[in-house]
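[Meeting: bench + compute handoff]

Bench side (C.D.) handed over the final construct sequence. Compute side (W.E.) agreed to return the predicted structure before the next meeting so the bench team could plan truncations. Sequence as handed over:
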Amino acid sequence: MNLPSAAAGRVPPPSRNQRVDGAARIAFGPTGIADLYQRAPCRMLFPDGEAGEPQQAVSITTSGGLTGGDRIRVEFAVAADTMATLSTQAAEKLYRVLPGEADIRIETHVDIAERGWGEWLAQEAILFDGTRVRRSFEADVAATGRLLAVESLVFGRSAMGETMRRGRIHDSWRIRRDGRLIWVDALRLDGDIQAQLAAPFAFGEARSTATIVYVGTDAPAHLEAVRALIGAAHGGATSFDGMLIVRLADADAAALRRAVATVAGGLRARAAGLARILPAVWHC
């Protein structure tokens, strides 16, 4: 079939790809779930927990990963005199973002009331080559509340021969205690990711990193024990202003994951008398 001359050189308009705008909110009270809201692709699952463990939920993203223009927000609240854990089902895959598309946005907000214990135990986010992501974590912790939070980044699946060479990452933390801002932190990499990772005082040979934060009046008492748990792993810990912060990095994402499980598991056991192992979704 011959095309009319006016249409012969015409380029089809770019497709309008469907984007996700997901959200989930869960609040735990002393007797169970006090509030639950879900908007696809965000969902909450409720596995049977082990005896003596906090109430537990698992956050999942049913889209199988995120790409340009996608955004999700998770809100997690723990009432007074309540213990609860929110984990993620698996590693979050953050795919390539096409030119002209908006960055991926991931927002997490945690609220811990008086004498509450809350755990945000997120599995790693895997960054694919060309991804652009803005991820933020915010927490409001009451004066007698306690929070254990874990976040990790993997710069390409090295076991699959993949490398994140270019892209953009903006990863931020904001934690308030008793209404006062006590910690702000941000990581920003943009452009040639490999060169920035290898720069002096950057990541060296590491291609995965994790941050573990514990907020509680007893934080300083656990510092030396946590440093012992880090052991030969690449990382360190510090404590100030009622917080304990652990940084870990490794060239092997699987080794980093094991170190995170060891440190976070040991910390929850010392601080709250819970099991040294993380929830079952971390080991499936």
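W.E. noted at the follow-up: The CA atoms of residues 111 and 159 lie 37 Å apart. C.D. will use this when planning the next construct.
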